Amino acid sequence: MGYKRISIKIPVGYDEDRLRKKIRWFVNVDDFSYTIESKSLDARNKNNIHWEMRLLISSDSFKQDLPELKPELDIPFRKRDEKVVVVGSGPAGFFAAFVLQKAGFKVTLIERGTDVTTRTKDIKTFESTGIFIANSNYAFGEGGAGTFSDGKLTSRSKKISVEKKFILESYVSAGAPDEIKYMTHPHVGSDNLKIIVKNLRAQFENLGGTYLFETTMTDIKVVTGKVTKITTNNGDIVANYFLIAPGHSSYDTYRMLMKKGINFHAKNFALGSRMEHQQEIINLAQWGKKSLPGVKAAEYRLTSKGINQEQVYSFCMCPGGIIVPAAATADTNIVNGMSDYMRDNEFANAACVATVNIGTILNREVSAMETLDWMENLENSFFNFSKGYKAPFCSIKDFIAKKITKSSMNTSYPLGIIETPLWELLPKSVEASMRAGLKDFIRKMKGFETGNIMGLESKSSAPIQVDREKDGLCTGFENLYVIGEGSGFAGGIISSAADGVKSALSIISS
Ligand SMILES: Cc1cc2nc3c(=O)[nH]c(=O)nc-3n(C[C@H](O)[C@H](O)[C@H](O)COP(=O)(O)OP(=O)(O)OC[C@H]3O[C@@H](n4cnc5c(N)ncnc54)[C@H](O)[C@@H]3O)c2cc1C
Known about the structure:
The protein has about 500 residues and is α+β, with helices and mostly antiparallel strands. It has 13 helices and 22 strands. The structure holds flavin-adenine dinucleotide.
C-alpha cells in the first residue's frame, strides 16, 4: 500500500460519486481509498463558492510511504496511589480529570451543578417559566458552560495541536460527527454536546474515576503553600493534587480562592451585547444566495476600531442559532448564543463586544476583587432594569442613532425583549466603541443594519487572571492548579480543554 496527499477544489453540493471522480482524475488510479485531512469553504468569490480539501489517498498502485501524520498525545499509564480532586466538569476540568485517570491517578471530579439530563429539564423550565434554578443553568452543570454552547470547536492557538487532536478524537469517540477532526471551522452543536458529555462521563467512570454532581467546593485548607483538602457541601475531600477549573461565572468560588491567598489580578476583557439577524440576510451577504447545497448557514467575523484604540469585534457567531439567557445567579441578566448541529434556526446571532481596560474606565488601579464586584454590579443592573430576564433591546440602527426602537421585533430569545435605550445600560466607553464598530459593520456587510442588538454580553473572556506558573501551577503553591477559562489563561471550549490536558501532563511528568 502506498500513499499520496492531494489538495482539491470541489463545488458545494458535491456527492460521493463526484468526489471519487475528482480524486480519480488527480491520481489516475481506479482502486483507492481516501481520508479527508482538512476541509474549508472558500466563499471569497460569490460566483465560485467551493470547498477546498486536503486528502490522503491510499492505493496499492502507489509507491510512497505513509507521510508524517500529526503526533498523538502520549499519556503514560502506571498504577499510582496519588489522589487528585478536580473542581468543575467543564472542558478544562473534565479533560484534566480524564487524562489523569488514564495515567493511573485516582481522580474525583466534583461539579456544583446537576447531570446533563436534569440540567436540560431545568433549562427548559427556566425558559418556559422564567424561574431560575441555581446550579442547574447555562453556566453550571455537567460539561460546564461548554455543554449548552454553540459547540464551535475552533481555537486560534498554534501551540495546542497535539492536545486539540486528542480532544477532538475524544469527542468523536463519544458521539461527535467525524468531520470535526478535519473541518477548518468544526462545529458540533449543543444537541450533540449533551450526548457527548454523558458518554465521556461513562468513559471516565469506566476507567475508575469518580464523578460527583451537586457538590460545590466552598473552602480549601492551605498549609504552607500546600493544599491539604477541600471542603464541599457534601464533606471534605483529601488529595495530593487539586485542580480548580471553575469557569468565569463562579464569583463565589473566585472570592473564596482570593481570601485563601490565591492571587488574581485584573486583565483586559471585552463587553457588549448580542446582535441578531435573519439568517437569510447573512447568507445573502456572504454567499449572494439564500442557501447553498450541503452548507448549513453562513458565518461572519467582523472587526473594527472603536474609540481610543479599543477594538470592536463580533464574537461567538452562531449561524442558525438562538440567543439564550446565560445568567449564573438569580439576580443577574446576561445573554449568550448557541445552536444545534444543523444550524437551521431562522436567526443568526453574534456578540458585538469592545475591549475593556477596567483601570482606564475607573481611572485608577483596580484589584481583581473590585473587578468582580464591578462586573457583578453591571450584570445586576440589567436584571434590575428588566425586573427579571427579559433582554433590553433596540435595533442596530436605533443603537447608532441613540433612539428607542418603537416597533416590536421577532427574536429567538426565549424570555422576551423590552424596548430600551440599551446604550444607557452599558459603560460609556463600551457603548461609544460599539456605535463606531456597528457603523463600520454596516459598511462592511450588506443588510447588517436590519438586525437588532440586545442584552449584556459579559462572558466573552475572564476579567481576571490568576498568578500561575507554566501549565497551571499557582504561584507560591506546590499542588494547586487553577485552569481553564476561570484562570484567565484560556477561553473557549478547545483552549480551556487543552489547558486542562496540559496541566494534567505537567502533573504526570512531575
Ligand atoms: C451559551 C454559550 C455558548 C458558548 N459557545 C461557545 C462555542 O461555540 N465555542 C467555544 O469555544 N466556546 C463557547 N463558549 C465558551 C465555552 O463554553 C467556555 O469557554 C468553556 O466552557 C470554558 O471551559 P471551563 O472548563 O474553563 O469552564 P466552564 O465550562 O465554565 O466549567 C466550569 C464548571 O465548574 C463548575 N464549578 C464552578 N465553581 C465550582 C465549585 N466551587 N464547586 C464545584 N463546581 C464548580 C461549574 O458548575 C461549571 O460546570 C460558550 C459559552 C456559553 C455560555
